[in-house]
Amino acid sequence: MTAAGYAPGRTLPLRVEIVRQFRRRRTMVMFGLLLALPWILVLAFQFGPAGRNSGQGALRLSDLATQGGLNFAAFALSVSASFLLVVAVALFCGDTVASEASWSSLRYLLAAPVPRDRLLRQKLIVSLGYSAAGVIALPLMALLAGTLVFGWHDIRVPGTGEMISASAALPKFGLVIAYALVSQLVVAALAFLLSVSTDSPLGAVGGAVGLVIVSSILQAVEALGGLREFLPTFWNTAWLDALAPQPDYSGMVKGVAVAVTYSVILFAIAFRRFRRKDVVS
Amino acid sequence: MAFPGGKRGVASVASLAAALVLGVVVWAVWPSGAAPRPENMRISVLDGPNGDQPVSLDATFFPPAGGGKAPAVLLAHGFGGSKMSVRDQAARLAGDGYAVLTWSARGFGRSTGEITLDSPDYDVRDVEQLISWLAKRPEVRLDAPGDPRVGIAGGSYGGGIALMTAAYDKRVDAIAPSVTWNDLSTALFPDAAGGGPENGVFKRMWAGIFFSDGSTLTAADALDRLNAPAPAAAATDEQVRCGRWLPAICDVYQKIAETGRATPEAVSLLRRSSPVSVPGGIRIPTLLIQGQRDSLFPLSQADANARQIAATGAPVDVAWIDGGHDGGDAEIDYVYDLTRSWFDRWLDHATTPASAGFAVSRDGGRDPGTRRPTVVHASAGTYPGLTGTARRDIAITGPEQPIANPPGGSPAGITSVPGVGGLLSSGGGGVALDIPGQSAVFESAPLAVTTQITGSATVRIRVQGEGEAVLFAKLYDAGDGALATLPQSLAAPLRVAATPEGTVATITLPAIDHRFDAGRRMRLVLSTTDLGYSTPAAPAVHHVALAVPALTVPLDAALVTPATGPAWWTWALPLAAILIAAAIVVTGRPRRGPAEPPSEAAAETPLVISGLSKRYRNGETAVDDLSFEVRKGQVLGLLGPNGAGKTTTMRMLMGLIHPDAGEVRIFGERVVPGAPVLSRLGSFVEGPGFLPHLTGRDNLDLYWKATGRPAADAHLEEALEIAGLGAALDRAVRTYSHGMRQRLAIAQAMLGLPDLLVLDEPTNGLDPPQIAEMRRVLTTYAENGRTVIVSSHLLAEVEQTCTHVVVMHRGRLVSAGPVSTLLASGNGVGPRLEDVFLTLIGEPR
User: Shortest CA distance to B61 belongs to which of B69, B77, B73?
Assistant: First the structure.
């Protein structure tokens, strides 16, 4: 017999968890940073010393950032994907369970009782939701900022300098954001696993970021050859291929495969660990 | 209590990463077998037309790694190099089981003699004697006495000697020449209109580079000269003029360089050093590797070799690599693999799978990890030649255009600049410069379908005017808006005698393998100047038009790139991961015994603990075979000194810790993590747990919402009354004092008025009036048929509040029963619970 009105399937509704996480200063600061970065970049381009004229030599993404909103958004994504977004995702996913453990509120939720699998599932959904919102917010704000400041123009492709019409580039841009999301899944999964394994939120976030750094370093070791393809960060920049005049999606497909592989297993381990864990915090 | 579980998780991930790094490093630096010890030596040979000129060749012999008698490979170096240039390749081949001999050709490195351009009278004779030398080596396998099993490989100048030796010495069994020539005269005096070298346009820049390369004396050369039998005190005029060139060749060069036209003597001299002069001479398996980015020895040179050798019936394979004399990716590993498998097949007769007859290196896009260009190898069974397996006409249009030849040939257009070709080009196409007014442009409509040209396109033009016209034909890949690229930066030079009524010429454009995407245009440009060539100095204007408004382009549909579709692991890996993940989750599911429905009586008993044990990882037994039960309406005091196992018991009671043995039943139902019956339990164990950024009210509100139960059941106001926080309720919890948090936590435990309330040290941090109030609350709470369990170490507290008491010590139950009984059993130790307690746990009073 249970208490009146109790049903395991109704415990810890998503909106409750969203509110619990949303009012945290950490969440606010991270979103503030993600939304402010495009404007900081805009200021940097506006007031920085006048750069060399583009059109000389190979065109880099950074040379083309001021060509229009889409170019600017692509640039903003490229400079933030390797670190800022990693930190954001690691924060949202690594902090979620570990912080409850460090506040001791975890044991009261579990004794409420919120079934362990359900608690983890709801927390995972919410933290992935926040991560996705963060990853999407940055390029969208960059698109807005870039369009307001540099105008709405066709995208100019790095390297050859070819133009792709804005209407054709916009769906591609959606694809790029979707890929950026998927490629952050490994970070999310690792941070989440660490989050259920430790009582220290910063340990979970730092551990996930640390692994990304180790992976990026290994990626630079050419001697590894084909093995590098299986490093979790190896395909993180593959989305650049989608913006090429002849888009090549094979790198992105591989990237998705690697990301899904790692993250699914890490998530599974997280659930198994948490289910069997003695909660002593 | 802190247990090392959390840190263990981080540590295990860290050690995993460390193991990964270590493994990788070991794998990368692991020594790969003992290298064979090369022997340096000088081999004396006699050459010259009469075979009487002594030359000392600087050579290195690499014994085969496997020992025994192995086939031999002569590895020749390129122009300007020495035996040291091929040292790595030689060591690798020796490691793969071949006896390898490298040498500095005469006129190069520390060998004596002059540069004789792979002449049959000199270089070929040298190599014949090297083959005889090999035949005497015990490591070399022999076909017959004095006839070793031998192959020759080399690039450019080294490829030339491979072909020439194969033509003159029948002991050679297989060759793999790369980026080399069939006819030096057409290589240096090409005429794309088919006029032959006497009519060709002089490739003056390449020729100059080679000539000067051979005439500079490096410091090492100078030193060798001093040690030579006849030391020269200082360079003579002759040495400065010709350097290490054979004077006869030097004279010829100086003449053609001056006039820009090939003399009959020059043509015959160049041809004598070319495979074209020995038709039918090469009858052995030949692998021809030619660079697509090569304005010196273009693909047409390899094509001529292929046709000449295949005509004898000998097997010929052709590979077009991404590279050549103009730079690009030299594909060193690929060339090595091709060469080695060629020798494995034809020298060692190892059972290697038959190679593709024709392989073409194509742009494979960029490696997403390194962002570097990658190369894929398309292959076909047979080599179709430069006309492809099929041809298609592409309509091109353009009016007749006048073009000027500037006086002195300057300014000149630029395609590829020898030595710096790589600077202008990127990927498969280069950016070329045509001077306005000097070039005529004809263009196709945007292509309807993607067209891959493999070979030489042809076009017929008409040139009107007077005198001879030198033209450079280039086929651009052009598009609207983007820069036009010139595939491989190649131009086809031609010389036609213009007439007022118009001379028609058929131009064979440079051989390329290039994909023109749909929507792009083919653009033919004919210009009058090119930096790399010698062009007429006299100013002239000619009118150029298309004789036939079409380009004939060769296609080879048989060339297939290995499937670039998703690698097998892109679907297999995630699939396997999902299966593994499912297995991980499913096997981790806690096993539950059959849930026997609790009996009526058991369902009425709030708490039954039986045989409960818990041992922590460090071996410490926290709870040992604990059994007791709590009945409705009781206020139970759980007593024991620190470390008695009270908190551990409460944690097991909440389903936070898995017991090692025994069980906890609440209202007859067994407690497991998340057991629904826990909804009838209110708990406060080991301090409060709140979200510090939320207010007290929000904390309680969100906690209750997290239970998913109706808001009306919460009895929030009653709980808040107990907490007694007043206005502080709307401040963030992080601002609270210890006592305030404690009261809020007890209020949280009472939310929903649970049937069983478990409080751990509830009065810690409360002031005396609050303690008294708490005592009253607990007593009242139990009066309504509910049950309260209070752990405490304040004996007076328990004595005043509780009806029953359980005493624990070192994880074991010491005593259980009503407080009154316990006091009565005191056997004269005193009326105070404290005395009884101390007796029970065996401490001296």
Answer: B73
